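Minutes, project check-in
Item: structure for the 305-residue chain
Input as provided by the requester:
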Amino acid sequence: MNKLQANLCLICVTLCWSSEVIIFACIPNDILPFATTAITNAIAAVILAACFFKRLKAELKRSSKKLIMRCLLLGVLNCAYNSLYLYGLNYLDVSTGAFTFSMTIVVLPVILITMKKRVSKKTWASASFVLIGILVALGSNFADTNVLGILIMLVGCVVRAVFIVKLNDFAKEHDAVAISVNISMFVAVFSFIIWFAIQPSTFAALPWSGTIVASLFIYAYFIIAFAQTLNIFAQKRATAAGATVIYSTEIAFSLLWGAVLPETLVDRVIPTPFQIVGAALIVVGSLIEIADFGGRKRRASDVTQ
């Protein structure tokens, strides 16, 4: 897999993640997000472990302690930024929260410098376009946006940026399936602990139905088992900055689904002109990061040689 193929895989992953709004529409709002996260990640871990048992066993035999400790760290970071995102939404509306969470690419260059990693000019340019896109999307409402909600989201973006950088590093050393299984397992455990603390009755409190069970299994397979594993596989060739910028385009897909899908699937939400322009700027930022501006020149040089 070359870098272009890795970026295409990441776009596919982002497309999958953006469709989760359709699945969540089938799950009642009174079900705690931590319950959904715990159940779906547990199902995904079981599915992947059952399908790739020999592969998982071989990777654990090769580097058991290192793999488990690294996935434990990734599981903690994953639960942390998702929890911050959920609590941040208590102070912001959904569209504002979604755009604000795209700030991950804005803080990523600082995180990379802190970790003594090189930051290219393209990454700075991409971050600038994404930041402008976020500000444009929020429009005149930016001044009225809850400051506490923004701060919580910003901390979540910092944690998410660290997660992406570490995942990008670990994906180059370990098997993608093994990482995905262990991350899902740890996220399931941590989410269940939080779920139990909030709602001790846990499974007994859920309004079980065929629709809910089907939605949980579809989410576990399509969004976690498939998309998460494909994401880790692609990160072997992609850069942390490239992956983060591509993830930020999820907001564009989400706006599209909300505008074109029938109300029987999702709540119809027509984006404002500011949101459309903001999403377009975020997409432009993504293209700047993943575009190979010097590729043609290098190929021409190779031919002349």
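Outcome recorded: Confidence is low (pLDDT under 50) at residues 296-305.
No further action items on this chain.
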